[in-house]
Design brief:
By secondary structure, the protein is an alpha+beta fold. It is built from 9 helices and 10 strands.
């Protein structure tokens, strides 16, 4: 067995059983708080798992949302660690240096490990998400090769995804929703207003969202545009969900669905504030 040396933080995370569990009991190896300065990160409530998921790019978030809408997917585990005992010999065999920092080995991770309930075909697959520029870096490509060989040894399909595999409409919707999350109103106000919008949406199933917004603004003497902004913010919080392959501007009321467990969603966001 290959020798390895881990720093105290990594040993602590292993003791915390990060990377173990499934469904709502899974603990990702990395969280947004661990890498708070790393670009556009996201903490998103998963309706499938009933827990908060952690992502470090828009492309990771896009991949997650697409996975959640797949009816065959039964579990999604993000930032999934590769047991250090396994990739080390893989790296040695490939004559590739395993990631290290300060003389200590680093734990590699896949962005997603996904379980399926399909009657035929694989029951699990792994995903790594990168941007196209990332693939121009030779060291990044080397680490991807270690990861690919790791999963091949385990007989589990592994996929590499970039923004080029993401539908442009999906990415455009995510840009809109990300900007909607940066709003001045508190989460409490947004969630308190949700029943009003749910009622108006239900009573006007074929109305455009802009028209729904104007209805509520007029009925409650709100500044024009307030309700449309709130609808976007509620969708960004995933209190309201929709098929992200449909452009936001083309959505009508019946395209929006309210999450079943609002209390759980509110508690999740409150805990992460």
């Amino acid at each position: 067995m290959a020798n390895y040396k881990l720093d105290k933080k990594t040993q602590k995370w292993i003791k915390e059983e990060r990377g173990k569990g499934s469904g709502k009991d899974y603990h990702p190896w990395l969280t947004v708080r661990d890498l708070s300065s790393r670009g556009r990160s996201h903490r998103v409530m998963g309706h499938l798992t009933g827990r908060t998921h952690h992502f470090f790019s828009d492309t990771e978030l896009a991949a997650f949302l697409l996975l959640e809408w797949n009816p065959d997917v039964t579990d999604i585990r993000e930032q999934f660690p590769l047991r250090i005992e396994d990739p080390l010999p893989v790296a040695e065999q490939a004559n590739i240096r395993h990631p290290e920092a300060g003389g200590y080995h680093q734990i590699m991770s896949s962005d997603f490990v996904v379980d399926l309930s399909t009657p035929s075909g694989p029951k699990r697959f792994a995903v790594q998400v990168k941007t196209s520029p990332d693939l121009m870096d030779s060291r990044t490509v080397e680490k991807l090769e270690i990861e690919r060989r790791y999963w091949k040894r385990k007989g589990i399909p592994w996929y590499l995804i970039t923004e080029k595999q993401m539908p442009p409409i999906v990415m455009a919707n995510l840009d809109l929703l990300y900007s909607a999350r940066v709003q001045s109103e508190s989460l409490e106000i947004l969630f308190q207003s949700l029943p009003i919008y749910v009622e108006v949406l239900a009573n006007n199933p074929n109305a455009r969202l802009s028209d729904v917004g104007m209805m509520v603004d007029h009925s409650y003497s709100l500044e024009p545009g307030t309700s449309l902004a709130r609808l976007r913010a509620l969708a960004a919080l995933r209190a309201l969900t929709f098929d992200i392959s449909i452009p936001w501007i083309k959505l009508v009321s019946q395209d929006l669905q309210v999450v079943e467990d609002i209390a759980l969603l509110r508690a999740s966001y409150a805990a992460n504030q």
